[in-house]
Every structure is written in structure tokens, then in C-alpha cells.
Design a protein that fits this description.
The chain is an alpha/beta fold and about 240 residues long. Helices cover about 40% and strands about 25% of the residues. The chain contains 9 helices and 10 strands. About 40% of the residues are buried. The structure holds adenosine-5'-triphosphate and magnesium ion.
Length: about 240
């Protein structure tokens, strides 16, 4: 469903992704882990067609997207829901208007239908009744959940979650990972979840990939991740002080 073929990404003189080949099969969730600035968010933006690679190809549902026009890319993005690392909620819109945004863009729903879908989405993220609040009136954990509601409300076939629990306490984080797992089973969306929370990643991922300095240094199942003897990956997932990192 999502495939990177020999993808390179360079900004000015900085090479931030080096020859990444990676794929996510339909209905599965890939956990993407890695050191800070290793290129995780850039990889997600490439898959969403928000930026284009310097070299290589990105395929969504078998369709190469790097050479598509902006117009054609819009159609691809319609199939994708995204939770951004900083939530990226619109401050001047209410919670309801934020969540309604992807539905409004589809231009085929009545006002009543949109209202009902927003109510349902808020119930799913366990925040019923906060439609009229503004983002600056809710907590960090609530913002993440509103972001997840917005990312999933249009029932996209692909969902990206960039750091869904960054800055949240362990209990709220567990609840969010539970919620993501529930949404995966309900919608069967193909997903990529970026996080440095290894326990959370284990909870939601079928396979895991790790980036370090723009290179793919691991790809496999969560069991294979556990069993790896690669010193860098071993140190990273256990948070040890000594090692190559
Ligand atoms: N639009 C851009 N222009 C220039 N450099 C960029 C741009 N976007 C990202 N970078 C650089 O690419 C590198 C990878 O960034 P990215 O945001 O993908 O890291 P990350 O793995 O998501 O890190 P973090 O865990 O801190 O979120 C960084 O060095 C960053 O400064
Ligand atoms: Mg990031």
C-alpha cells in the first residue's frame, strides 16, 4: 500500500534520507522509530506527497506519486489522514470545525452528516461534547486526541501518526495507543506510527523500522526487534547509556 523505492532526500547540502527502500502492506501498521533528526517526519511527509524526494520513487496503492501534478496529488492526499507532530490544529477554528475539515474538503457531505460524523469521531477518542471549545481551551492530551479524530474522521485508507504521545504521561499514552489500535481494527487502515515510545510502538505495530542519520538500520517484526543483536538498535530500544549511540 505504501512503498519507498531507493528514496533519497536532500535539503541544500544536507542529505537527510539515504537510499530508503521500505514498504507497508495493506491493513498493517509500521512503527517508525529512530534517533532525533533521523528523518522520520520527512519520510512521512514524502509518503503523504507533501514533499517530493530528491531521488527515488514513492508508491501509494501501487501508484508512483513523485511526478504527479498538484491536482493529482490532492486526490492521493484525500485517501490519507495525518496526525502531525505538533498537532497542527487550526487555532481560530473550534474543535468541531477542525475535525470537520477533511470532510468539508470532500465536498459531498451535508451539514447534518458532518455534524453527526464529528460527534461520532469525538466519542471514539473519548472526548464527547467538546465540539464548541477552541484548541487553546483544551489540554495537550486532548489536542492529540482531537488530532487523531481529525486524522481518522474521513475513514482514510492510510493514516500517519507522527509522535501521537510526545509530551504525555504514561497512562494517557497507553490510552492513546489503545485508541489507535481500536481505530486500526475498526477501519483496517494501513498506517505508519512514528514514536520514540518503544512500548507504545510494540502495542500498535505489526512491523517496525528504525532510522538513524537518514539510513534504515532495522526493519522487521516486533519479535525480531526484540531479538536483534545490532548494537545500535539494541542500545536504542533499551535506552542504555553505553553503546554506539
Ligand atoms: N523543510 C526542510 N528544510 C530543510 N531541512 C529540513 C526540512 N525538513 C527537515 N529538515 C531536516 O531534516 C532532518 C530530519 O528531520 P525530521 O523532521 O525528519 O527528523 P525526525 O526524525 O522527525 O526528528 P524528531 O524525532 O526530532 O521529530 C533534520 O536535520 C531537519 O533539520
Ligand atoms: Mg519528527
Amino acid at each position: 500500500m505504501i512503498e519507498f523505492q531507493n528514496v533519497w532526500m536532500q535539503f541544500a547540502s544536507e542529505v537527510v534520507l539515504k537510499n530508503i527502500s521500505l514498504s507497508v502492506r495493506e491493513g498493517l501498521t509500521l512503527g517508525l522509530i529512530g534517533t532525533p533528526s533521523s528523518g522520520k517526519t520527512v519520510l512521512m511527509k514524502l509518503a503523504a506527497g507533501l514533499i517530493r524526494p530528491t531521488r527515488g520513487e514513492v508508491l501509494i496503492g501501487g501508484q508512483p506519486i513523485t511526478a504527479l501534478s498538484e491536482h493529482a496529488l490532492f486526490a492521493v492526499r484525500q485517501r490519507i489522514g495525518m496526525l502531525f507532530q505538533n498537532n497542527a490544529l487550526f487555532d481560530y477554528m473550534t474543535v468541531a470545525q477542525n475535525i470537520a475539515f477533511p470532510l468539508e474538503q470532500e465536498r459531498r457531505h451535508s451539514v447534518a452528516e458532518i455534524t453527526a460524523r464529528v460527534t461520532e469521531a469525538l466519542e471514539k477518542v473519548r472526548l464527547p461534547g467538546i465540539e464548541r471549545l477552541f484548541p487553546n481551551e483544551i489540554s495537550g492530551g486532548m489536542k492529540k486526541r482531537v488530532g487523531i479524530a481529525r486524522a481518522t474522521v474521513a475513514k482514510p485508507s492510510i493514516v500517519f501518526y507522527d509522535e501521537p504521545t510526545a509530551g504525555l504521561d504514561p497512562v494517557t499514552s497507553s490510552k492513546i495507543y489503545n485508541l489507535i489500535r481500536d481505530l486500526q481494527t475498526q477501519h483496517r487502515a494501513t498506517s505508519i506510527a512514528i514514536s520514540t515510545d518503544i512500548d507504545g510502538i510494540r502495542q500498535v505495530s505489526d512491523r517496525v523500522a528504525m532510522l538513524h542519520k537518514g539510513e534504515l538500520c532495522f526493519e522487521g517484526t516486533t519479535d525480531e526487534l526484540e531479538a536483534t543483536r545490532d548494537p545500535l538498535v539494541y542500545q536504542f530500544i533499551r535506552g542504555e547509556m553505553t553503546g554506539p549511540l
